Amino acid sequence: MALESVRFEILGPLRVLGAGGELRLGRPQETALLALLLVRAGQPVAVTEMVDVLWGERPPDTAVNVLHRHVGALRRRLEPGLPVRAEGRWLIREASGYRLATDAGSLDLLRFRALREEARQAAAGGSLAEAVALHHRALSLWRGPVAAGMPAGPRAHEAFRALDRERLEAVQEAADTALRGGAPDAVLGELRECAGDNPLHEPLLARLILTLAATGHQAEALRTYDAVASRLLDELGIDPGPDLREARLAVLRGTPNATGTPSAADGAEADGAHPGESEPLAGYVAPPSAVTPAPSQLPYDLPLFVGRRSELQDVLAALGSGPLSAGTVVIGAIGGMAGIGKTTLAVHLAHQAADRFPDGQLYVNLRGFDPSGTVMSPGEAVRGFLDALGVAPERVPRGLEAQAALYRELTAGRRFLVLLDNARDSDHVRALLPGTPGCLTIVTSRDQLSGLVTDHGARSLTLEPLDTEEARELLVRRLGAARVAAEPRAAAEISALCGGLPLALACVAARAATHPGFPLSAIAAELREARGSLDAFARTDTSVDVGAVFSWSTRTLSPAAARLFALLGLHPGPDWTAPAAAALSGLGVTEAELLLTELSDMHLINEHVPGRYAFHDLLRAHAVELAQARLGEAEHGPAVNRLFEHYLHTAHAAGMLIAPYADALPLEPAPAGLLLEPLTDDLRALDWLTAEYRVLLAVVDAAVSSGSDRLACLMVSSLERFFDRRGHWHDWATAQRTALDAARRLSDLGMEAHALRGLARVAGRLGLHEEAGAHLDQALRLFAELGDDAGQATVHRSLAWEAEQGGDLTGALRHDQLALELLRAAGGQAAQASALNAVGWSHAMLGNHRQALSHCSEALAMLENLGDRVGQAATWDSIAYAQHHLGRHSEALASYRSALAIYRDLGVPAEEAGTLTRIGDTHRAMGDDGAARKAWHSALALLTQLAHPDAGRLRARLDGLSEGAACATAPDGT
After folding, report:
1. pLDDT tens digit string along 792-846?
2. How much is the pTM?
3. CA distance linking residue 684 with residue 790, whole number of Å
4. Distance of CA 685 to the CA centre of its chain
5. Strand partners, 330
6. Is 16 helix (H, G, I), strand (E, B) or coil?
7. End-to-end CA distance of the chain
8. Helix (H, G, I), strand (E, B) or coil at 389
9. pLDDT tens-digit series, residues 332-368
10. How many whole angstroms separate alpha carbon 191 and alpha carbon 207?
11. What is the Cα–Cα distance from 243 to 205, expressed in whole angstroms?
């Protein structure tokens, strides 16, 4: 047998793989002997050490003779047909003992070490991305603790403990490299696992905290620090060392500062590790991408900002130079006037003060006076802030009051600058005010916000129009001093005609700047002759007509750009892209991009982030009026339809990419020539859905407002899987209720049934099981009335899940079996395979494990043919559960790992946590409490992040495991 025809795996449960598959290991002492030879990795092992591992301190007199018999049996197991007493080629006799002939091709431990060395060399050569990839490959060879499942006596030998420490060192080294290379995601899973098994190892836990922050989980990073600090105090009576303290500071600051810590040995000694195992973090300076910055959401500061000196001086003087109290600065405007520069001043002020708020700057445009009517609710705004602060969507509590409380908790004791732009009134912002001293909140509004002044001691600042000198300074900054000085009267007339409003002046200056040969007197004459129609925004105390300025600006555009400007007034969302503008206008993307650039150059729209454009609300109002005045129904209706169809069909295509076998409502074929976004894979689909999320919600509302109820229902159905995947359950519930109302207005029973089923799903996610059951009963009745077998089957699947949550396992099986019968009648392989797995799982829950394996194995074969990875993961998990309860623990672990790998690849943390919990159950049943604890700790970290109700139950099991270990007992953990 050639050397490469046998592979040994010791980084986890011991396995020997031959050409014919996995070799059956012998008796426990033979297995322990093989494990010892493997951890020595080709080095000789003395007979005395072998005896010590197999028998401990009291070996029998015949120990050496028995050892030789074990060696012979092991040789024949590795090389069947080997004559008795023949040496063979694997197990070699040495002067004082034996050596197993292995290399990096036959032993995973040697492959692990070789990859680590390659990673070090790559890092030393500056190839950090390659180094991270090599570290990841090395760590992925570990399937659990070394020689997992081996009896505790031999496993306690120093040779095995040293390998555990080697893994710990490798994880820390990989974490440092990943942080430096800006790829923290590559090691987060391994860090979580190692931290679960080493809950007192401070250098390791410091790296976990930094990596959590670097992957956007700042809130979890801080909770991890608090949990570790409590554990150190409770178990060792000590406070966190410098490793942890510096890591926490780095998270709070959101800066890549040195996380100076002592060597890993200081923390390692607490749990038995040897000194010198890992490089210290001292002196490590992360690159900008290594630690996710504190939220820095402020819009760009206007480089040509002018004037407002007295207002700025008053506010900055009020802030003082000492510690801040919880203050609120309100920037209002006279008579509700828009365009006076509230946002510009607020943003400039925020940038001036930002360095005093190291924990971050939060910004939101509340759209309180948006002409489209899409005012942002306080709940939507606070959920956006929670996301910026690292709170996973699944962890956001129900209700504005609870969400605001969590927001105040996360900002307590920290220093944030919060800019709340364009608020409707005081009540609009109360939930967004931090609750403790040290934060600064700036609010802009056309309302005077007297409630904030009265109730919160806010400082009110009312803006006047720019005076003559400030208006002249604005023109000088944009047109140059020489041009303004050459025509002072024309410049003064332009300032007067614009009424000192910065927005109007900016539009006129843009026109003049793009035509440097035009005299300012000619531009003033054009402006003087213009007539606008924004009556609602006209100043009552001056002669300025804002609409006149904007009408004049749009008349200077090319006809195509002017048409697009008016059409954009029909767009319901907060912003848009060139493909959306192209769909709205019926143009090509390239032509739309050129027209958007023309509009942006004239300051009529703003490219607030690369590729996404938005209006000032005053200019949106002007665009809306132009659309109403200039676009007849022959153009208005088709344009809106093209836009809505663009978003609907792209969202549907994206939904099918992220969940190919989802049961979304089908669409009619896209209209001929409809422009769609080119989405090639599930990652691009997720990116598009994430970027357009707020726009798509606005399209749902706009569709309902315009009487397009069918489109609203189809859009919500297309978004269901994205809502669920991202954990946007609160928005999902709102949208689903909108769809249900729309379906009932249409008297479309099919759409109503789908909406009821979707509403039941999200109610179940939110723990509203009684409500979910009522919706499902209605949906089932409607699908039955329609004769829709597939629809009835999906409802039975949901009823099965609800029954299982309520402990009715027999009822769950009955519903799953009904679903399978209906789907077999309706056809459709993907749905049948999923139902087969569900039936198998229900059988397993009832203890019918052989029936479970039969159903799930059939389902897996179908799902693999279909390429349904989500279904495969769920089915592997079901198979593993049945194998576990049949006593086939090694097979169960292998099946669980297949499920776990897919869940991690797809990023489904709730399912990953469930599989990790069951992996721990299997380790516990095998007597490996250490591996069980490790898996459960990893699961608990995910469940805690999700605020999942199972977290408390799992924490209790971990506490019970610790108590059992302390009492030297081994209760059944399954």
Report:
1. 999 999 999 899 888 889 999 999 999 999 988 887 788 888 899 899 989 988 8
2. 0.57
3. 30
4. 15
5. 443, 460
6. strand
7. 41
8. coil
9. 432 335 677 788 888 888 888 888 888 889 999 988 8
10. 8
11. 8
